[in-house]
Design brief:
Layout lengths: L1 H26 L9 H21 L5 H11 L3 H10 L4 H23 L6 E9 L5 E9 L2 H4 L2 H28 L9 E5 L1 H6 L1 E2 L2 E2 H12 L4 E9 L5 E7 L4 E3 L2 E4 L1 E9 L6 H18 L35 H8 L1 E10 L4
Antiparallel strand pairs: 1-2, 1-9, 2-6, 3-6, 4-5, 7-10, 8-9, 10-11
């Protein structure tokens, strides 16, 4: 076995030498002599190339580093091995090389794949009732359900969600500084357009750059679909619900194929936040399942707005108890719906 390996290495060295010999011949003009300047520089180039080939040919990859690199970067076995071989098992250098390659390949692939349909993907929801009474929901699309379920894609959509939340918090903080009434706030929703999303910054670059890197690793077209953020009055409570064949909770985000956010306002002093919080989650589940379009008939402004009774939230039969409508439930619990939004991945 040892003799066979030795023969293989000699054959590989011989093959590399023949390539280098041909390269040297092609690089050196016929009229150049060994003392010429061009001849000396050619020898230097070829010598460096020869040393690189010889040094990497015998590098054995560290299996622990290979496993760690694959887990941290998401690249395949062969690419991670190439990175370690080229960098002599220097983990930091190999990781930096892979990120550089991902960015280069990502932008190239993003340009190449941008015309391909991306109707799969995920919806992510994040609610913060403790700090700023804020909620956000985003949709990121890809080409296949297989990629949508991958850890790398899930990580991407959670980063998009956190970026949207961070953006809204910055706006709230800025408004507080300008507001003479201090911390008082009203209910507001903000729809983030695709070009706004692309420019949002994270600790790893803009969202546009993160998407390009992810495309480089996964090889599919990925699009920032849509996003919405909400802030509400301090007495109000947000609830959320996510549904689908693939649901995951990671980094304070709930991820799935369907998502809903609802804001409730207490109408009585005997209603506590825990009760409202539990009710808001159940109502968000109802909204995902029943897909209402408006809160009430009065919310349509005009009597013939194109919505029938089945589209009106308070008129719908409550999903979790068919003996009463949502309106009757809200009256019994002493709350009202301030706002809601529902996303279904791939459907606008």
């Amino acid at each position: 076995m040892a003799s066979m390996l030795l023969c293989c290495r000699r054959a590989r060295f011989s093959f590399s030498s023949r390539i280098l010999s041909k390269t040297f011949t092609s690089l050196t003009p016929s009229h150049c002599s060994p003392g010429d300047k061009f001849h000396s520089s050619s020898v230097k180039i070829i010598s460096n190339l020869h040393l690189r080939l010889c040094s990497t040919a015998n590098v054995k990859t560290d299996k622990n580093l290979l496993s760690k690199l694959r887990k941290s970067t998401g690249f395949g076995f062969s690419k991670c091995r190439e990175a370690l071989v080229l960098n002599n098992n220097d983990y930091s250098a190999a990781e930096a090389w892979l990120h550089e390659q991902a960015e280069k390949e990502g932008w190239a692939k993003a340009t190449k794949l941008q015309g391909r349909a991306a109707s799969e993907g995920l919806v992510s929801v994040m609610v913060d009732n403790e700090d700023t009474n804020l909620a956000a929901m985003v949709e990121v699309n890809c080409e296949t359900d297989f990629v949508a379920r991958s850890d790398m894609f899930v990580d991407l959509i959670t980063m998009v969600t956190h970026a949207a939340v961070g953006h809204r918090k910055a706006v709230v903080e800025q408004n507080r500084k300008l507001n003479m009434f201090g911390d008082s706030s009203v209910h507001l929703r903000e729809v983030l357009l695709t070009h706004d999303l692309r420019d949002l910054k994270t600790k790893n670059g803009t969202l546009e750059e993160l998407v390009a890197k992810t495309i480089g690793k996964l090889g599919e077209n990925i699009k920032l679909g849509r996003a919405i953020t909400m802030t509400t009055e301090s007495d109000n409570v947000f609830g959320s619900y996510v549904h689908g064949p693939f649901v995951k909770n990671i980094n304070n985000c709930s991820v799935g194929k369907f998502g809903a956010i609802v804001a409730l306002k207490p109408l009585r002093t005997d209603v506590n936040n825990e009760q409202i919080s539990a009710l808001s989650s159940r109502l968000a589940q109802h909204i995902v399942g029943m897909n209402p379009k408006v809160i009430s008939k009065s919310a349509t402004d005009k009597p013939n707005e194109g919505f029938d009774e089945s589209d009106v939230l308070v008129e719908q039969e409550y999903l979790l108890d068919g003996s009463l409508t949502v309106g009757e439930l809200l009256e019994r619990e002493g709350v009202k719906v301030v706002d809601f939004v529902r996303y279904e991945c791939g459907v606008i």
